[in-house]
């Protein structure tokens, strides 16, 4: 299992200037190597028996340019530009590895046939991190001991360890990140143990959740979590600050300060949203052994008129966080197709067409009436249980009983609802 802990660091003025200069040199090297790769592609991708009638490079075909040739040129780079000697050599290699990974994502499709976009040249201040690939070993460039981080070519600085490093983990890499409110180090660590999912015969509590814009999520038991709308609440304040930036002179000190102020607003929005997602995920994982969610196409949904609200809710990020929290706790997350979950009746399976403005599900066949999100959550749970091969009994537990239709009955413990 691999974890990453992020801690704030406190460099002095000289160390901060050194790290800023390091980022700028790595940014220039990124742009130079990217141009090398693109120029080689332009000169070699034309077939010998046909050329473009509009534009074609003229000249000798250059030698192959890849990660290994560019890595071997690092020695020559330090000869021509001595200031690169002040950067840890492994950090420069990782910078080239990042570029090579971006090029491969662009040129070669993944298993699903999708490719990434073409890597872009980075403007000033767009490169915000550099990596020490080894930490706390004899030949490492970074050492963390007793709350003090020592970086090669930079020096020692204080680390605010707001939570201790977990026992049994081996420190792997150290990434220095520049954010709007200061500098951070992200420590990646690894443990040989791999969390295992709880066996199906031990699963006792299950839940299905349906995410939405009226409520952030609704469970198959009728519980709801209110939506935050963090960006919506901050939108007017953010717009005022952006208008103030537009009135300032580009490149001035006042403009740079205003840019940082806007970046802090965005950072605060992201942190509040992330904290809400983690709290919601932990509450669900602590209560249930199996959680059913929809496998949503967020990119497709973000092209609709509700794109701002959908991106503000960040359903995709929440499901990713929920999956990560569940893995550490051994809880199962089952993703099902979202097709028809809001339209089908969770009791009889009949299709009940409805628009987004209709918030009540009323089945014309069996007479079931409930909130449409709760009905969708029950359909999601049913699909997940069918996928893993479990049967939910009428008393909210798992057993060998046959599925029953959704009906209410009164008993000694109050009203009970079966989900089938």
TrEMBL record:
<keyword id="KW-0815">Transposition</keyword>
<keyword id="KW-0479">Metal-binding</keyword>
<comment type="similarity">
    <text>In the C-terminal section; belongs to the transposase 35 family.</text>
</comment>
<dbReference type="Pfam" id="PF07282">
    <property type="entry name" value="Cas12f1-like_TNB"/>
</dbReference>
<dbReference type="GO" id="GO:0004519">
    <property type="term" value="F:endonuclease activity"/>
</dbReference>
<feature type="domain" description="Cas12f1-like TNB">
    <location>
        <begin position="315"/>
        <end position="380"/>
    </location>
</feature>
<dbReference type="InterPro" id="IPR021027">
    <property type="entry name" value="Transposase_put_HTH"/>
</dbReference>
<keyword id="KW-0540">Nuclease</keyword>
<dbReference type="Pfam" id="PF01385">
    <property type="entry name" value="OrfB_IS605"/>
</dbReference>
<dbReference type="InterPro" id="IPR051491">
    <property type="entry name" value="Recombinase/Transposase-rel"/>
</dbReference>
<keyword id="KW-0233">DNA recombination</keyword>
<dbReference type="InterPro" id="IPR010095">
    <property type="entry name" value="Cas12f1-like_TNB"/>
</dbReference>
<protein>
    <submittedName>
        <fullName>RNA-guided endonuclease InsQ/TnpB family protein</fullName>
    </submittedName>
</protein>
<keyword id="KW-0378">Hydrolase</keyword>
<keyword id="KW-0238">DNA-binding</keyword>
<feature type="region of interest" description="Disordered">
    <location>
        <begin position="241"/>
        <end position="261"/>
    </location>
</feature>
<keyword id="KW-0862">Zinc</keyword>
<dbReference type="Pfam" id="PF12323">
    <property type="entry name" value="HTH_OrfB_IS605"/>
</dbReference>
<feature type="domain" description="Probable transposase IS891/IS1136/IS1341">
    <location>
        <begin position="194"/>
        <end position="303"/>
    </location>
</feature>
<keyword id="KW-0255">Endonuclease</keyword>
<dbReference type="InterPro" id="IPR001959">
    <property type="entry name" value="Transposase"/>
</dbReference>
<feature type="domain" description="Transposase putative helix-turn-helix">
    <location>
        <begin position="1"/>
        <end position="44"/>
    </location>
</feature>
């Amino acid at each position: 299992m691999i974890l990453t802990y992020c801690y704030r660091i406190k460099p002095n003025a000289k160390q901060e200037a050194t790290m800023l200069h390091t980022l700028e040199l790595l940014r220039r090297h990124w742009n130079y190597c990217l141009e090398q790769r693109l120029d080689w592609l332009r000169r070699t991708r034309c077939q010998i028996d046909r050329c473009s009638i509009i534009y074609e490079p003229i000249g000798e075909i250059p030698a192959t340019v890849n990660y290994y040739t560019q890595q071997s040129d690092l020695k020559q780079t330090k000869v021509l530009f001595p200031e690169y000697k002040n950067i840890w050599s492994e950090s420069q290699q990782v910078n080239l590895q990042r570029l090579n990974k971006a090029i491969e994502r662009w040129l070669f499709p993944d298993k699903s046939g999708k490719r990434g976009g073409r890597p872009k040249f980075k403007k000033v201040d767009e490169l915000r991190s550099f990596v020490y690939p080894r930490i706390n070993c004899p030949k490492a460039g970074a050492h963390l001991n007793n709350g003090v981080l020592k970086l090669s070519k930079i020096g020692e600085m204080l680390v605010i360890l707001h939570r201790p490093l977990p026992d049994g983990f081996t420190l792997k890499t150290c990434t220095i990140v520049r954010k709007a409110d200061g500098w951070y180090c992200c420590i990646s660590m690894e443990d040989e143990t791999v969390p295992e999912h709880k066996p199906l015969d031990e699963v006792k509590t299950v839940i299905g959740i349906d995410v939405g814009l009226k409520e952030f999520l609704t469970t198959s038991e009728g519980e709801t979590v209110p939506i935050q709308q963090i960006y919506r609440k901050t939108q007017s304040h953010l717009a005022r600050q952006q208008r103030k930036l537009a009135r300032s002179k580009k490149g001035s000190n006042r403009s740079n300060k205003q840019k940082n102020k806007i970046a802090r607003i965005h950072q605060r929005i992201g942190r509040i949203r992330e904290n809400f997602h983690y709290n919601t995920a932990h509450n669900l994982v602590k209560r249930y052994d199996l959680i059913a969610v929809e496998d949503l196409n967020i990119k497709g949904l973000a092209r609709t008129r509700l794109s701002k609200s959908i991106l503000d809710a960040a359903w995709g990020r929440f499901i990713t966080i929920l999956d990560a929290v569940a893995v550490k706790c051994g809880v199962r997350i089952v993703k099902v197709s979202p097709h028809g979950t809001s339209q089908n009746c969770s009791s009889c399976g009949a299709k009940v067409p409805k628009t987004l403005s209709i918030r009540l599900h009323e089945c014309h066949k069996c007479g079931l009436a409930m909130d449409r999100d709760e009905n969708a959550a029950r359909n999601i749970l049913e699909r997940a249980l069918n996928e893993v091969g479990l049967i939910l009994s009428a008393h909210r537990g798992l057993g060998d009983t046959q599925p029953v239709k959704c009906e209410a009955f009164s008993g000694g413990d109050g009203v009970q609802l079966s989900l089938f």
